[in-house]
Design brief:
Layout: E1 5-10, E2 14-20, H1 23-29, E3 36-38, H2 41-50, E4 55-61, H3 63-73, E5 78-81, H4 88-99, E6 103-104, E7 117-123, E8 129-134, H5 148-152, E9 154-160, H6 167-182, E10 186-190, H7 194-199, H8 201-208, E11 212-218, H9 219-226, H10 231-239, E12 242-248, E13 254-257, E14 262-265, H11 278-291, H12 296-311, H13 320-329
Parallel strand pairs: 1-5, 1-9, 2-7, 3-8, 5-6, 9-10, 10-11, 11-12
Antiparallel strand pairs: 2-4, 7-8, 12-13, 13-14
Length: about 325
């Protein structure tokens, strides 16, 4: 019998503020380019003031959220577990999920008191994205937010690595993984960002534990996790902890391991505009594909085309015209 959901995801709910800046902005404001940096509310307020008028768009985001939105854009059915506050950003977040047809633990009539997390996604002309994040209420994301039934009713549990930075988030991940294992649900994980593997390596290894069914990471994250250098050593390190995995290589495509064979996935060249959410979209399209009868090699190809489409535009979302273009490129 088919499950109600392809994927049940858990992650930090953040409203993305999409902002265009020049490199000089980072020097003037002591921002480290190209990384995701956690900041407090006052620091984020300072930066928001400094970029006043440059905010292009606001929308519900976060690593796992972007993946579940990607899954939904291709026609998959997802459930997203998260925590937002009863403020304007929280309502924006809930409405984004509802519009996308994504089921959630959030009740628009009964949101939490506090401040919804925000991520300032600062995009430079070279298309690189730099994120400064104030987690707000999602700092306290915990096992209390989990909906056991939604995990049981899914083919895959998908967890974002950003959650390991919070003690309650790490506990929630372990509990979600336990529920999945006890109910025959496959466990998938994304490392999310090199900073998570670098600064929270012990916690990341704790959540990987005896292994996961499917792991998503980029080459830098794989090297950091394994304490190794180079693709050959990185893939061997990841193979020890993941039954199947994807290592993305940016403009050089990706490597997919299906549990038996490796598949080199070619890139789809594009003029880079904004790299925000490219890896998240890769995971969303890949999860959609393997849930809907495609092989891992075919899933990798679809995901590569999807992430390329995201890089070629502003923001992490695709619309139906983008999806049609992707299928046309693939000869479907």
């Amino acid at each position: 019998m088919s499950k109600k959901y392809d994927v049940c995801a858990i992650g930090n709910a953040l409203v993305d503020y999409e902002i265009e800046v020049e490199d000089q902005f980072f020097k003037d404001n002591q921002v480290e380019k190209g990384l995701m940096t956690l900041v407090d509310e006052d620091r984020q307020g300072e930066l928001l003031k400094a970029v006043e008028g440059n905010v292009r768009k606001k929308q519900g985001g976060g690593s796992a959220a972007n993946t579940i939105f990607g899954l939904a854009e291709f026609g998959g059915k997802g459930y997203y577990t998260c925590k937002v506050a009863n403020d304007p950003d929280g309502m924006l977040y809930v409405n984004d999920l509802i519009k996308a047809g994504i089921d959630t633990n959030l009740n628009p009539k009964n949101l939490y008191k506090g401040t919804t997390g925000k991520c300032l996604v600062m995009i430079t002309p070279d298309a690189e994205r730099t994120m400064n994040t104030y987690l707000g209420i999602t700092t306290d994301f915990s096992a209390n937010e989990l909906n056991e039934e939604s995990i049981k009713s899914s083919n895959y549990l998908f967890m974002e690595g950003f959650l390991v930075s919070s003690p309650t988030g790490l506990i929630a991940m372990k509990e979600a993984k336990r529920i999945a294992h006890e109910n025959g649900v496959k466990v998938s994980l994304t490392f999310s960002d090199p900073s998570m593997v670098k600064y929270f390596n012990d916690q990341m290894k704790e959540i990987v534990g005896n292994g996961v069914d499917l792991l998503f990471c980029n080459i830098e994250e794989a090297e950091l996790f394994g304490g190794v250098a180079g693709m050959e050593a990185a893939k061997e390190a990841i193979r020890k902890v993941a039954m199947e995995f994807v290592i993305t290589k940016g403009k050089d495509g990706a490597l997919v391991f299906d549990g038996k064979d490796y598949h080199e996935i070619a890139p789809f060249p594009t003029k880079a505009v904004d790299a925000t959410g490219a890896g998240d979209m890769f995971a969303g399209a890949f999860l959609y594909a393997i849930n809907h009868g495609l092989s891992h090699a075919e899933a990798g190809k679809l995901a590569s085309a999807a992430s390329s489409a995201v890089v070629g535009k502003y923001g992490p979302r695709l619309n139906q015209s983008h999806i049609k273009e992707i299928y046309t490129k693939l000869g479907k």
